[in-house]
Every structure is written in structure tokens, then in C-alpha cells.
Give the backbone structure.
Amino acid sequence: MSSTTSPRVHIGEIIRNAVLFNPANPQEILMNPDILIETVSRFFSVLRERQIDYVLVGGIALLQYVEGRNTEDIDLIMALSALERLPELQLESCDADFARSKFGDLRVDVLLTSNPLFDEVRKRYTTTRRFVEQDIPCATLEGLILLKLYALPSLYRQGKFARVGLYENDIATLIQVHNPPIQPLVQKLVAYLEPSDLTHVEQIVEEIQERIRRFEERS
């Protein structure tokens, strides 16, 4: 998908719509979802004004490459030191790899650069993409696939079936639409996954590629 021919992604509207159509959300948010558009714009303005080093990942970043993804939060790769320069973020939880926080009613999940793979994506798999709000550093197609493949073994162990299905579908869609060289990305994970987890990832990739072949044969 070319950013020069496709409509720009409006992050605020994507999040507002996802929140609005999720009846499980608190009533006070559902009564005034439009405020999220302003909150998103203000959040990225704060990141720019303070010259925070970050990379957009997750569902919003995915929309630069494929259509139809729905998400209520913003996912960033960021250093803990950068996170500490954002006192407006209300930290809900934090461990060695992840921090969950809120900026007003906007959920912001942070992948911390203390994780070597997250830092690798920040350094080597980042590009600047144009969104309605502003130009934003965003994970490349390859960076997004790396992050999702890396996460899958842990999600399987945790029994998070819905998220496993979502991630595998994201990977399959990215591969089917863009056809990136996938084996070099799998090999990149050798440095970041245990051998048993790497074997699991290889099996997942084979299954995804087989699904794509069946789909294309029947199209």
C-alpha cells in the first residue's frame, strides 16, 4: 500500500470509532467519544514538542500497510527514560519489557527498549509515515512482522487465544498483500528467542504460508 496514493490514516478517528462501537467501555467515554480525537492530537503534539524518541507500532501502525484493523489504543516503542519525561502519562503497570499507561482517556501501551528486539526494531526497522495528525516515526512492514512473530510463543503459553488469532491474521495479511522475504525475518529472531520458541515460530510461518497458498489457488 502506497502512502502517496492511499488516504492518510486519522489516528484519532480510528480510536474514537473503536471505542464508540465497543459497548463494554464505560458509559462516560461512550457519551463523549469525540474528545478522543483531540486527546490523540494533543498526545502526539506533546511527543513532538519534547522531542521524545519513539516508534509507533501495533494496530495503528498496521493501518499504513493493510486496511480494516480496529484498535482502541496506541502502541509505542520507547525508552524508560523517555517515558519518565511524560508525567502526563498515568502509569498503570510496568515490567522489564512493557508499560501500560493512560493519557487522559487514551490508552498508551509502551514496548520498552530494554528489550533487545524492541530496541532493534526502533533502530533498524523504522520509517516516517504521514498521518492526519502529523508525520510520525512508524515501524516498517518488516518491523511489525518481527514484533508479532516474537510475541506469538508467549501468547500461546498464556492461552490468549483471541490475541493469537489476531496476530496470526495480521501476519498473514501483511505477507499476502506485500509478499516480503519472510525467512530472513525468522532468522533474525534466532538472537531473541529460545530454540523451542523459534521452532514454534517456524511452524506458524509454514502454516500461514500454506493458508495463503490455499487462498490464492481458490481465488
